[in-house]
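Could you join me in thinking about how sequence relates to backbone shape in a protein? Would you write everything just below, so we can both look at the same thing?
***
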Amino acid sequence: MSASIFSPQSILLAIFCITCSIFLFPEFVTAGVTRHYKFDIRLKNVTRLCQTKTIVTVNGKFPGPRVVAREGDRVVVKVVNHVSNNVSFHWHGIRQIQSGWADGPAYITQCPIQTSQSYVYNFTITGQRGTLWWHAHISWMRATLYGPLIIYPQHNTSYPFAKPHKEVPIIFGEWWNANTEAVINQSLVTGAGPNVSDSYTINGLPGPLYNCSAKDTFKLKVKPGKTYMLRMINAALNDDLFFSIANHSMTVVEADAVYVKPFETDTILITPGQTTNVLLKTHPNPQQTTFFMAARPYFTGQGTFDNSTIAGILMYDNVSASISSSSNTLIKNLPIPTLPPINSTSFVANFTNKFRSLANARFPANVPQKVDKHFFFTVGLGSNPCPKNQTCQGPNNSSKFSASVNNVSMILPTTALLQSYFKKSNGVYTTDFPSVPLVPFNYTGTPPNNTHVSNGTKVVVLPFNTSVELVMQGTSILGAESHPLHLHGYNFYVVGQGFGNFDPKKDPANYNLVDPVERNTIGVPSGGWVAIRFLADNPGVWFMHCHFEVHLSWGLRMAWLVLDGELPNQKLPPPPADLPKC
């Protein structure tokens, strides 16, 4: 008998190499595998702005680790909580078809994961590919608990554009020297607006425009004449951001993990919760070899905000590896990109209107053409009266800031809504969320004298497969500003938007029902409205809220309860055995 040419050692080595390849190079792996991740929630000392603080991290990393998969894959993430804070995690933009128990918002689909507890998030990525992200979804814990969720197309499936030379995640965040849990807790007690962040960050780094931070600068190294895909994520807590790269243009090709008709721009606007993929074509013969990339906020409200600029550096590869650590030298020598004025609502409107779905045979735009249920929601700020024997620092120094949808400021229950629904528990929520404002007013005109909100835990019930049109109307109460609204469990089509008050007789005539952009997060225009459509084909309880964390904390949130359909694949399965208990 002839001897085998493969030794046991060589076979084990081959298995090891294949396993490593699956995780290191998922773009070369056949679709449909199960990918396992472990999130250990631990404290870590991190220094930024010359101050060291203890933060909560995933696996000791800030930002957190990259979760990588392919369309059709199953993703299994075991979270083990080693800190005193409660945690839960949301896989932002994942449809969670028949896996609503894995969606993550605390007290909506699950109770939080308490100290020394664990929970396994288990979901399959169905019909999605592109850039999404994950983040904590309880209180302000996502200030440090966030990271990219990158979904490659199915094996042997190409992008609808030329494959880039390299792909780079660009994650915007915010950094507080203070403990963010203390920041929001103080705000909720006093009723005042919370203290703003001390800096913005790019991939966790503040950059040279902030004190003592030139060494903590994100540097993107590129080669001349190449195309790079920047996977951009706004993980900032409370700020829309403008972004630009000096002397370079970008081509937008994807929004919220949905391909769009490509368009060129010098500047992008990205709200918290949104993702945007852009192609950056580097100069073939650059006259200069280092450039600033920069971001700063878009803001039209009346409160305080972090009015600073974050910068990173684009470096062509023929630059010396050593760059002066002096921020003054960097600022003097590098061209700074021109960004729109901070309150440039006109730029935001023009930019937002450029997004269109591909709407072709391969990537159709399945816009609901008929509507079963119409909803009209006001979104904006308001106030709650100051409790007796307490001094408040909110509006007029006599009340507390609040926020609402249709004047209902949502109170989170102490038991998760999805668990309550599945167990048919009574008394946790009511099903009388108003489909229109109970008291109409001139929404974008002079605000009413009474700015008090109502408070409650109400949901909207939708039969399975209901086609929905929702108009979200911004208000001028306590200042008109943009509100990035995120819908869990669904993508939606943005069929119309405009300024002033929505006119139900005139505005629908201008809807785009052919190739509207498909998103999971959309900015309700400052002093305006936006109309979306979606098909309620995913049973469960789905959170919808402003992705400004301060407005979420103040109650600008609600939930949709989508009932089961008749077929087995149209029903919510039972909860997993390890679902956390309250």
